[in-house]
Structures are given as structure tokens and as C-alpha cells.
Design a protein that fits this description.
about 325 residues; alpha/beta; Alpha-Beta Plaits; GMP Synthetase, Chain A, domain 3; Rossmann fold; 4-stranded antiparallel β-sheet; 9 helices; elongated
Length: about 325
């Protein structure tokens, strides 16, 4: 195989450059003879290697299996990915696009439970909150069954929104629910929040979703998890559905996991809350602006209410975080 020989003094600088270019073959060990370092190469014909000392030599395989994706593929800026069922969804930076197929293949090797690796084509967008994806490696599919909190969720990641990163939130809210509660799960997608709750508690939950595909999977998941009659999926716009008088002063708990727009729906939702109702509302805030977001939420509710809990759910971008606020209706 091919290797690059460099003076030992410039070894670290060259190593970083090879990593950034995706040229360092991490399946083999780096060698040195005291004066030179020899880097195993993925390919010998890259522009960066012109004029440098490329040699043919044998490199021993590394004794340890790579433990992380970054270690396996050599790209430090490719670290995290989401796993939904047996599908991994990864964001490929521009610096790694030339090696994206290898990234997908290495991810399959690292996690035997993954059958398909998809790359993000776009951010979550549109009124249905879906993103474009493309196949990198493995089986050509976008539908899977995700397991969480003892439940199974059938989902097509190209047609509906589903976030495994909200698993903690689903468990946290479940731990607060009491038997007999009336629950509104809004913007509910394939119905993970109400199903997780209804599998453990005796509740009545309406699951409202605008995306027809999300509603279709919600209906399937209700049957799959045997919570018929306790979780009732409804297709349509939250603002229109909640105009029905049967929802007035009905809810003991309202779940609003739509961080981009949920707070704007509060004026159309708050009439459904009984005294003592807990509203779990998610939103984005610039770093350091959590307090201001909480104050804005209370103004939009326009009923006596207090924030009883808040926390950062995740970092959304370098300057923006996602938060959840638990708001109790006092009157």
C-alpha cells in the first residue's frame, strides 16, 4: 500500500492536514523510524501529495477497532448522528463530501444494529417539518420501527418528523402524569408523546397532527402499541380542531413539542386548559435569553400562570438553544 513519509518535526501538522482531506487510512498504524513519520494513505494521487515523498510500504493493521466514527474515518468534524430504529441519519460537512460513501460504510461497521445510513439533504422545513435525505450505505429504505420506553413507533424519516433526542423529555413528562388525566398532544407527529404515556398510565389523550403521513403512522402506532381508545389521533390544524366546544376547559396536560412555532399557538390553545393544567411548551432562544422567552410565554397565555420548571433541551446552533417550559395554569 502507499504511505507518505515526512520529517518527524512536521508530522503533527501533516497528520491534521491528511485528516482534514480524508487521506489518512485509520485502519492502519502510523509508523516512524526516529527521523521520519510514515502515514498510511487512502489514495496516493491527491493534489496535496504532489511533490511529496509518497512511498510503497507495508503498514500493520491497528490493534484496536475504532470506537468512534471520527476515529474510524479520520474526520474530526463528523461526530454525531441520529439513530431512528435501524436507520442512521448523519450530516455530512462540505469538507467530507468526497468521502461520504466511506463514512456511511464505516458507520455500518461500527454499529451492527444499523442497516441503513442516510445523509441529511436539508434542515427540517415546511409546515410538515420534514427533511430531505439520501442514501449513503446499506439498505435503500426510509421506513423503520423505532423502540423507546417499551413502545414501538413505525416511521418514515423522509415523510414525517421524529426526534429520538426527545426521548428524555417523553420519559420526564411520563413521570409526572397521573391516572385519569386528559391530555392534548399537539403537533404530535407519529404520536410518540401520548403513546409513551398511555402505555403506562390510564389517560385519555388526543393526538393532533397536520401532516397526513404523520397522522397515518399515528393510527398505525396506536394499534401497534395497543392503546386504542386511550390515544385518539386527529388530522388537522390545531387552531381549527380546538375550536370544538368539547375541548374547552378539558385538558389537565398540554404538550407542545414544536420549538419553532409552538409559543405562537398558545393564544389558540389556552382556553382548553383547566385550572391546574400543566402546559409543556418548547421554544428556541438565543443564548442567555431563556428568561425573556419565559416571560413572553406567560404574556401569550394571558391567564394567571407560573413557570414551574424549565431546562435547556439541546443546542440548536452556535448561538441558539432549545428550551422546554412547564407552565402551570393557576386560575
Amino acid at each position: 500500500m502507499y504511505g507518505l513519509a515526512v520529517d518527524i518535526k512536521s508530522g503533527e501538522t501533516i497528520r491534521r492536514k491528511l485528516v482534514d482531506l480524508g487521506l489518512l487510512d485509520n485502519m492502519y498504524a502510523i509508523l516512524n523510524d526516529g527521523r521520519h513519520i510514515f502515514f498510511p494513505l487512502v489514495r496516493p494521487d491527491h493534489e496535496f501529495l504532489k511533490g511529496k515523498q509518497v512511498v510503497e510500504m507495508e503498514f500493520p493493521k491497528r490493534g484496536l477497532k475504532p470506537k468512534t466514527l471520527a476515529e474510524s474515518i479520520g474526520f474530526r468534524d463528523v461526530r454525531s448522528f441520529d439513530i431512528i430504529g435501524d436507520i442512521a441519519i448523519i450530516e455530512i460537512p462540505e469538507s467530507a463530501r468526497a468521502q461520504e460513501k466511506k463514512i456511511g460504510e464505516e458507520l455500518l461497521k461500527l454499529n451492527k444494529n444499523i442497516k441503513t445510513v442516510l445523509a441529511k439533504e436539508s434542515s427540517v422545513q415546511g409546515e410538515y417539518r420534514v427533511r430531505g435525505v439520501r442514501l449513503l450505505a446499506g439498505e435503500n429504505k426510509t421506513e423503520t420501527v423505532h423502540r423507546e420506553h417499551g413502545c414501538r413507533f413505525k416511521v418514515d424519516v423522509s415523510k414525517v418528523y421524529f426526534s429520538p433526542r426527545l426521548s428524555h423529555e417523553r420519559g420526564r413528562i411520563l413521570s409526572q402524569v397521573k391516572d385519569g388525566e386528559h391530555i392534548l398532544a399537539l403537533f404530535s407527529g407519529v404520536a410518540p408523546f401520548p403513546i409513551v404515556i398511555a402505555r403506562k398510565k390510564r389517560v385519555i389523550a388526543y393526538s393532533i397532527e397536520l401532516n397526513p403521513e404523520g397522522h397515518k403512522y399515528a393510527l398505525e402506532n396506536v394499534k401497534l402499541n395497543k392503546v386504542e381508545g386511550r390515544v385518539i389521533p386527529l388530522l388537522g390544524d390545531v387552531k381549527e380542531i380546538l375550536k370544538d366546544d368539547k375541548f374547552r376547559n378539558w385538558a389537565d396536560r398540554i404538550i407542545m413539542p414544536l420549538p419553532k412555532d409552538a409559543i405562537n399557538f398558545l393564544p389558540f390553545v389556552v382556553h382548553t386548559a383547566r385550572k391546574g393544567c400543566i402546559i409543556h411548551v418548547y421554544g428556541f432562544a438565543k443564548k442567555g435569553a431563556e428568561k425573556e422567552l419565559g416571560e413572553h410565554i406567560l404574556r401569550l397565555i394571558s391567564r394567571p400562570a407560573e413557570i414551574i420548571y424549565s431546562r435547556k433541551v439541546r443546542t440548536y446552533s452556535p448561538d441558539t438553544d432549545q428550551f422546554v417550559f412547564d407552565v402551570k395554569i393557576l386560575e
